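Narrative summary of target 7.
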Amino acid sequence: MPESEELDFGALRAAMVDEIALHARLVAEMIGKDRFDERVLATIGNVPRHDFVPEPLRGLAYLNVPLPIGCGKTISQPFIVALMTELLEVKKTDSVLEVGTGLGYQAAILSAMAKRVYTVEIIAELAEEARKRLGKLGYEGIEFKVGDGSHGWAAHAPFDKIIVASAPETIPAGLLAQLKPGGRMVIPLGPEDEQHLCLVSKGRNEEIETKRVLQVRFAPLVLTH
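Modeled conformation, tokenized:
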């Protein structure tokens, strides 16, 4: 029997959630709070991260590190996934756009918290694999698209929340246009050696406020123009 199948993934997931909570306290001054919403932590505690990484890496799935998922992409560090989800303030009635599906881990978390998730992935191989994994695990309320996520998904806009898993240097105009007034976007911004995770808020009168939260390192957002 492979070693990963002998692991107690439930216990490892619980330990990961505890580490996320501890990490939140350590960076409380930067993120503006010392604890995450219990709904965020509970959802992350219920999603099997080991099912969203390649088979040889399942035993490493609950370490608080990013892991390669193929095609030159990674699944983000669990703390960063939790932080981005926390900053979104997802409601059960929300329509959420995700840019960068990967293998579907963030989409699984969002689908458990929102009404509908629309996820866009530029690499067709990853998008199809994510669709298979999420379907096999029974996640619902998710629609998939292969394409340039910087353009959003106009057919389903506007969105209450938008989350972006790769870094442009400036906020794509298409995403800003598709964010509802009163909506929130979480996005890493900046050149590779000077990125910050940012919270973008759109006011009721369409005014935009951008707040830097934490220095991060994401792959650059691929644009097709």
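The mean pLDDT is 94.
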